[in-house]
Amino acid sequence: MHRPEPEHDVNDAEPARWGLSRVLRLATGVREEILDQVPSERARYTSMGGVVAGTAIMAMLSMTAALYWVFGGFRFFIVLAVPVWGLFILSLDRWLMTSTTMGQGARAAGKLLARLFLSIALGVVLAEPLLLGVYGTAIDEKIAKDRQQEIQTRESDLRTCNPIPGTPEAASPAAAEARCAQLRLSLAGDSPEALQKQLDTATRQAKTLQTTMDNDGKAYAELEAEARKECNGTSGVGLTGEFGEGPNCDRLRAEATKYRSDHQIDENGKRLSALNQEIKDVGSRLGTARVTFGKSVDTAIDKELDAVRGRQGRVGLLERFRALDELVAANAYVAVTMWSIRIFFILVDALPIILKALSGRTAYDRLVDERLGEQEQAAHIRTVENLHRHAQNGDLMRYRTDTVYRNQRDLIDEGSRVQRANLDERRGQLIDAFEQHLMRTAIGPANQGWSPGNGRVMEGESQDDGPTQELIVPEQPGAQW
């Protein structure tokens, strides 16, 4: 494989010593043993490492601000969470740097764009909490005004929907709006509204009764005057002109008395007096109830406003984002500056990948690709060798298995032959013994001295062999007669 010539002689390159530059280069994932072959690239990767480390520091500041606003103050676990987040961002940027090789073709461009989009998304996440810190004063002021406005609006609505009965505010159309149904306050004690209705009813009844009594009193007075004229002897139309209590005088007085009784003038007078007393009492109670109601309304409204303040609590992260959006919508200058800062933060986080793209394909990249190619080829060779070794081991195992099988089969065959020979020998012995037994049985006493071969009893042999013994032939497995 052809190796590109390094920019400097390898023998002239000195290994990098440990220091700040080498620590910064660790953030880029660069391999120092390869970089030693192109020492001119050290400055480039040291700068890239500084950018990656700066991005991690910015991420830690962003996370610190976000956690501070989320929990409304400093918490001890922030000291542990922030470094972990910074290490995560550092590792992610380091992976982006090491995994982005500036090759050629659409495939390399697609890999670069995917990593660039990931860096931009990460930059957006990091930029937002820092923006809240940049516009912190304006955001706090906006939130304070919004909360105060919420309290004032709530108080105004409660007072509009809970007016004191009998006042001009109670007769306004705003107090009868549909939204007031959800804003009515439940108060203890006499209700001014109920007392006002009772007072209005009593006043209306007294006025009507007063009108009736005025008309009835006028008619009764006319009848009384007519009767007095008749009794006094006053001349006039329908009058007799005779003095004294005559029939006409009695009649006119009876008519007046009957009119008074029929129209219940006395009873109406008592009812009117009772109504006037009721009006007086209810009016007195209404005045007291209005004062009490006003104080109760103030107390209830204060409780409602305290509840609103309690719900507001500390300023959270989402509330800050909402306030920032409202500031941006209301002020074009804030919108321009905010987007400028946001784009700056995004570019800072994407800067490692941008620098990698702008640097192009360096000598270090060529050496890395060559080293990776060599490693892949070596790995391929090792894989082929391992496969071949496994194949050979498989052949040996099969040959060993076959050999063991053949040896075992031979042993089995040999054992079978020995067993057959033993059986044949034993069978012959049994046959001979059985044959001798038959021959002894056939000869008997008359043929004593006969022996096989010559038919005579040999000299010196006893002719009486004694009682014949039964030949017991043990059963042998597999033996056949």
From TrEMBL:
Keyword field: Membrane, Transmembrane, Transmembrane helix
Region (Disordered): 444-481
Source organism: Actinoplanes auranticolor
Protein name: DUF4407 domain-containing protein
Keyword Transmembrane included in the entry's annotation: yes
InterPro entries found in the cross-reference section: DUF4407 (IPR025519)
Record flagged with keyword Transmembrane: yes
Residues in the signal sequence: none
Pfam families from the UniProt entry: DUF4407
Transmembrane intervals: 50-70, 76-96, 116-138
